[in-house]
Amino acid sequence: MEESLENVPPMGDGRLDVIGLSRAELTARLADLGEKPFRTKQLWHWIYHQGETDFSRMTTLGKPLREKLAAHFTVSRPKIITEQNSTDGTRKWLLGMVDGNQVETVHIPEEDRGAVCVSTQVGCTMTCRFCHTGTQRLVRDLTAGEIVGQFMVARDSYGEWPTPTDETRHLSNVVLMGMGEPLMNYEAVAQAMKIVMDPEGIAMSKRRVTLSTSGYVPNMRRCATDLGIKLAVSLHASNDDVRDAIMPINRKYPIRELLSACKDYQRIAGQRQYITIEYILLKGINDSLADARELVRLITTADIGAKFNLIPFNPWPGAPYETPSIKAVQAFAAVLMEAGFAAPIRTPRGRDILAACGQLRSASERERLSRHKARLAAGIEDSHVLPEKS
Ligand code: SAH
Ligand code: SF4
Question: Domain 79-366 maps to which CATH number in 3.40.50.720, 3.20.20.70, 3.40.640.10, 3.30.365.10?
Answer without folding.
Answer: 3.20.20.70
